[in-house]
């Protein structure tokens, strides 16, 4: 039984089903060791957006205000999809890179440890 | 006229000239409470009370319900009436004397905003919740207790509105707490907490609110706000706190009685009650993250640190309580040790979050003054300087260059507590966000902790329906896709209700009224 309810076999309607987002999917982003951004960020993205667009156009708008951002060597960035290591292909879309609705993408930037090395 | 009635009538005639016999306390209590219940005959009791069995709780004898206060409705009205008269006399005096100018600093009002936006609507929700529980429990003792608490809670909501309305004339963010409570992202935290309880069965509701909230955690919610008010010269708020205090102690005692009653009725109730204690400890603890921030960052004159409060009120007092309850087979709530480990991080993480997003909040944030940073270092020697002070320093440097920093992205929220995913793996690496995930019916759900994930996994059909403010914005249900549209939908006035304290009209007014220019 997936809920304690008065009615037998009660089911709920998921409020955040993909079809509610007008063709977009939710994507969660997290830049490791940079907790000046207090929580991971949630954005709606079209599934056919190339990964390169996410990296080169979306991320600067979200994270560019951090003094470490301009120091990122993008060739060395380590990516994760959820908790698993992940090697996205630049030209492929987010969907073709395996991302689904409400996927979490984390990225680690070796050598960059936030404000005064505090992980902020 | 039946025989009994005619006997009474004759007896009445005999004693007509003497004063009526005064009822003893016990007799009076029985007549005014237990005697008000009856078993229905036109309809079976199960049909009249359809909600008090589906949770699996077994009650064999409702007479076993002990009301520790033996309060009857007539006495209740008398006590409350007296308290009201005192309260409103003091509020009048406070208003006539411009009492708002006597608080320690204009920043303090933001603690009051948090209380008014996030806690006062809970009082009203509690009134509804107890009215509902009273209707659905078939034992008359329980129903009378719920009725009184429903009225108490309504009174608290009203006295808070009346008291704080004075501040609303002079400060921002206090103009529409009910509207905000239904819509604003950070207020979905208390709202979803309470609605989770109200949409459960009546026994889970009373366990969650009367026991876990009122008994176990209220010293960490209500009291910090009231002590904070006392320390910061807010006599109006202190007064409604006092006026509510005797009600609160009644509610606390009731909470303990409820749990004991459930456990004494049937051994099968124990695992159900233990699961509720686990769940509602964790939900309540997550809600208290807002209080942690208030205590450490929002009070110009601090009462004690969050960490100290947690040690006294949960680790020590709560520990003793659960030791006492162990004779019923109840153990400490699951994940209490996580809460203990998080205590050196909680307030810093939450204040950082509000600092990130105060362009979208109806309360102001600020960088703690140097003396306040030193206080935080002293209270949190292992965490503040190492992990949190550097980010405040960086933000402060930006603000000095007139580049007050905000986070331009919207936060990822936990599916259960609805707080942004700001909590970290304090055990292993406090710079790593704590991510938990479940797949349910082919969809992903994210959580901030094992505690929240457990709650989801047990009843996913409930929590898949969560109204997560960030997702709702992206679905187009919150006034529009831009920040000004969302703020308009929240009924915030941009540049007035939101943003940094130093740049706010609240600050400008405070300085003007009190003739101060802050030294730093």
Fold topology:
The complex is a heterodimer of chains A (120) and B (520).
Chain A lengths: L24 E7 L9 E5 L5 H13 L14 E4 L2 E3 L16 E6 L12
Chain B lengths: L2 H12 L10 H8 L12 H4 L24 H24 L12 H10 L1 H17 L3 H29 L8 H7 L4 H11 L3 H16 L4 H10 L3 H31 L3 H19 L1 H10 L7 H20 L10 H7 L3 H11 L13 H10 L4 H17 L9 E2 L12 E2 L3 E5 L2 E5 L2 E5 L2 H9 L1 H4 L5 H7 L7 H8 L14 H10 L6
Antiparallel strand pairs in B: 2-3, 4-5
Helix pairs in contact in B: 4-7, 4-12, 6-7, 6-9, 6-10, 7-12, 10-12, 10-13, 11-12, 13-20, 14-17
Annotation keywords:
heterodimer, A: 120 residues, alpha+beta, Ubiquitin-like (UB roll), five-stranded mixed sheet, 5 strands, globular, B: 520 residues, mainly alpha, Ribonucleotide Reductase, subunit A, two-stranded antiparallel sheet, two-stranded antiparallel ribbon, 24 helices, 60% helix
Describe this structure in words.
The complex is a heterodimer of chains A (120) and B (520). Chain A contains 1 helix and 5 strands. Chain A is of the alpha+beta class and 120 residues long. Chain A has one helix at 51-63; strands at residues 25-31, 41-45, 78-81, 84-86, 103-108. Chain A has a single domain (22-117), classed as Phenol hydroxylase (Ubiquitin-like (UB roll), Roll), CATH 3.10.20.560. Chain A is globular. Chain A has a 5-stranded mixed sheet, with no helix packed on it. In chain A, strand 3 and strand 4 form a beta hairpin. Chain B is mainly α and 520 residues long. Chain B has a single domain, classed as Ribonucleotide Reductase, subunit A. Helix content of chain B is 60%, strand content 4%. Chain B has 24 helices and 5 strands. Chain B has helices spanning 3-14, 25-32, 45-48, 73-96, 109-118, 120-136, 140-168, 177-183, 188-198, 202-217, 222-231, 235-265, 269-287, 289-298, 306-325, 336-342, 346-356, 370-379, 384-400, 450-458, 460-463, 469-475, 483-490, 505-514, and strands spanning 410-411, 424-425, 429-433, 436-440, 443-447. A two-stranded antiparallel ribbon of chain B has the order 2-3. Chain B has a two-stranded antiparallel sheet with strand order 4-5. The longest helix of chain B is centred in the middle third of the chain and has 31 residues, at 235-265. The N and C termini of chain B lie far apart (85 Å). The interface between A and B is large, with 51 and 59 residues. Strand 2 (41-45) of chain A pairs antiparallel with strand 1 (410-411) of chain B.
